[in-house]
Amino acid sequence: MDAPHLLAGLNDEQRAAVSAPLAPTLVLAGAGSGKTRVLTHRVAWLVQVEHVSPHGILAVTFTNKAAGEMRGRIESMLGVPSAPLWIGTFHGIAHRLLRLHWRETNLPQAFQIIDSDDQLRAIRKIIKSLELDESRWVPKEVMWFINARKDEGLRAKDLKDEGDPNRRQFIKLYELYQEQCDRSGSVDFAELLLRAYELLRDRPDVLSHYRNRFRHVLVDEFQDTNTIQYDWLKLLVGPTGVPFAVGDDDQSIYRWRGAKVENLQQYRRDFPGVQLFRLEQNYRSTGNILEAANALISNNTGRLGKNLWTSGERGEPVRLYAAFNERDEADFVVNRVRDWTLKGGRRSDCAILYRSNAQSRTFEEALLAARIPYRVYGGLRFFERAEIKDALAYLRLIFNRVDDASFERIVNLPARGIGTKTLDTVRNYARANACSMWQAAGACISELGNRLGQSLHGFLVLIEQLDQQTRNLPLHEQVDHVINATGLVAYYKQDKGDRGEAKVENLEELVTAARGFEPDEAAQMPALANFLSHAVLESGEDQADEWEDGVQMMTLHSAKGLEFPIVFMCGMEDGLFPSQRSITDVGGLEEERRLCYVGTTRAMKQLFMSYAEQRRLHGTDTYGTPSRFIKEIPPEFIEEIRPRIQVSRPVYVPRSSGSGRMEEERPGGIRLGQRVRHQKFGEGVVFNVEGDGSNAHIQINFERHGMKTLVLGYANLEPV
DNA sequence: CGTGGGCGGATTTTT
DNA sequence: TCCGCCCACG
What we know:
alpha/beta, Rossmann fold, Arc Repressor Mutant, subunit A, 5 domains, 8-stranded mixed β-sheet, 6-stranded parallel β-sheet, 15% strand, DNA-binding
């Protein structure tokens, strides 16, 4: 039993994990320790050394990107197509199971996946139809409630209201929403997982079939699994399966959406004697960066324990910049990018990481002004665009008439004289008769007036015709026909300027996407249905231009799994990062710290951290203190580029651009943070100053009277 | 039926 | 400040 090429180039720990005996395994893989390598080599090992049939291997990831990467690497390693292996995301695998077993899970064969946007619309519609106040029953919160329960494996009937009328209403909404989904054959993301779990739980025949088939189950990013995903895995693996889990408790940053780091511990309990491997040698970052990261994360409690090390050089210290405000911070970053590119570096070697998307704007402006190309991750993706979703809605309705959400979306798009009144009639009929909008529309035509009835009838005929005309066409011609015959293309052509043009281009791109689409043979379904599911499950590339060499900008969350020679971690201020909302609870704070750890370990050669003393947030100036995470990094790893001069700075009068760094003291020595006394309001703290000289407006937080804005010249303030 | 102004809200994101 | 949503108006 040897396959030297499979173990060549691996370190001892990696080799041990790859060639581990066929028993439950856990690989704790630190950042940059070659986790994906171990996973892919393990698959190759199973096939080539242990002679496991690829047919018996299931590999699960969280993102399509990770799944695609793994598939590619495995194919090139095995030298054969990886089709017999099941490699996919949790949702993708669950989807495949449901397609194969729709009968056993009481789904219509034509069931459609809906994305969170559609889900929110559906929930909003239900809240409206109950005539509930949307400000009290916030659709987003209801959605969050439903998804969180599904992620815990709970149906509405499993929930008790505990005498809480609020909770009772939420449960009711959950129930109604699910009924609505079942009626229209829609399955949301959480439902995919829950149904797939119930399928295995309730159907012993199905369960034993898959247990026999998939003896080897490999899971990536195990720390990100939620309850239902873990329960599903456990069920599938059963007493005889061989699970191989890879994860890093220090990189668990999705607790807020149901991920349970505890699953790592639970796994060790559920599979006693699990073989544990630690990958601690880091191949990515310099010594300084690594030690800074280690020091930071050591502040967390309950870690499984792991210390990254590198045999590489110490490298440069972490550089810390105390910016004056967010524009100064952006200028600083731009200048460092310039330094790098002047030395011949690529712009795409540089990554600007921030806590929240809103922070990207300042950097975009600065980069734009400096004419440095950049790419922002996290925008709208292809299949999420309105025009694409419109076209898909037509296709979905053609495929599945009872899809009410799609019906409502396009019944009057482009406008064909079907207004609120007509729709109300149809909706009422549908509700009264517990039928679909489609059926209701057919029944309502006669009772509507001549004109309205005609319009509605026209729509029904249109859909029927499209179905007839396109039924036997290849997928891309089907799409092409639909976007033209419905008038969608013509409709968007009218849109003013570039926007209309871009939308039409996108619609044409949809045809191209359909042409290049390769159906999933295993799922045994019509190409159109397969394409529609694909569109939801893989919402497509970001809109940004990939081909251009640009500075990369993204949130800390989306940076996970990536690496860059130069990393800027910006907005390192308490309240921003860690975010205000997480500061009050320990678990939240520890998760933010892990996020900081993730950011830190993205850097290969240089890491810059910056914070702004003054920042415009939600339209008002705020004054922050440096993030507590900065203080958790021992000073020997940090070099301050411009040390802060004093704790409470003299008031600064902003000049026209962020370049000015002049500091002025105001008459009367008023500084931010200064305690002052006012004749009428008593004592308070200077919170903000805007404007010049004695005309300046000062915002003071008074102890007894709260926040007041006063004019300096008249306020007669006395420093305390 | 489409647009503009007023209003409230404002982490993180994948599927 | 900025964005998205709702309603009122043309």
